[in-house]
Design brief:
Arc Repressor Mutant, subunit A, four-stranded mixed beta sheet, two-stranded parallel ribbon, 6 strands
């Protein structure tokens, strides 16, 4: 009995009056746990999923900003596992922390937004990859640029293949619009969300 009382007291002290799970209010419980974890410096990566015209998207963010947008084709569980390995295992589903990103993506898909205004965490894109990705928002909404053009803008005009590699590993697709990068002859090329997704995004932008 003493052990049970002690455990209950320690749970109360540790969680700060976390609600009982038998209340059946799991969203409130997750929110409370996230608040406690954040307050104690125990939450490094927050994530949520959102529906979109191109399928479910995984959004992940750190205290620096949005760090990952992932298509279902990439495997959301696999993406979370890589985030745990590359950033921190202290990951928690906390939708509210990504409300701004979710809202701006919704505005993009409904044609109300042509440029994103979010803090970004680019730690997953080091070196020349980052140079390439930060140039992508310069490509006009509804337009395209070739891999050679992006290479030149990034300061390495002969690095078209490296631009392709950077786009293929873009951790923030849509927000950093690698779908606007095409081959010199206008053909779409590969895309981490699939060729149909790339075509759908370009069509969406061209009809607004």
């Amino acid at each position: 009995m003493i052990d049970q009382l002690d455990r209950r007291r320690r749970m109360h002290d540790t969680e700060g009056t976390v609600p009982d799970t038998d209340e059946g209010n799991l969203p409130a419980l997750r929110h409370r746990l996230a608040r406690v974890a954040r307050g104690r410096g125990l939450l490094d990566v927050a994530y949520r999923t959102v529906d979109s015209p191109v399928g479910a998207l995984l959004l992940a963010g750190t205290d620096r900003g949005l760090v990952r947008v992932a298509y279902a084709e990439e495997g959301h569980e696999a993406v979370l596992a890589r985030l745990a390995s590359e950033i921190s295992p202290r990951i928690l589903r906390t939708p509210a922390r990504l409300d701004a990103a979710a809202r701006q993506l919704d505005e993009y898909f409904t044609g109300c937004r042509v440029r994103f205004g979010l803090p970004l965490d680019l730690r997953l894109a080091p070196g020349f990859r980052r140079d390439v990705l930060t140039r992508l928002p310069e490509i006009a909404y509804g337009g395209t640029a070739s891999y050679l053009q992006v290479a030149a803008a990034a300061g390495r005009p002969r690095a078209a293949r490296a631009v392709g590699t950077a786009c293929a590993g873009n951790p923030l697709p849509i927000v950093l619009p690698c779908h606007r990068v095409v081959h010199r002859d206008g053909s779409l090329g590969n895309y981490l969300g699939g060729a149909e997704t790339k075509r759908a995004l370009l069509t969406l932008e061209a009809t607004r």
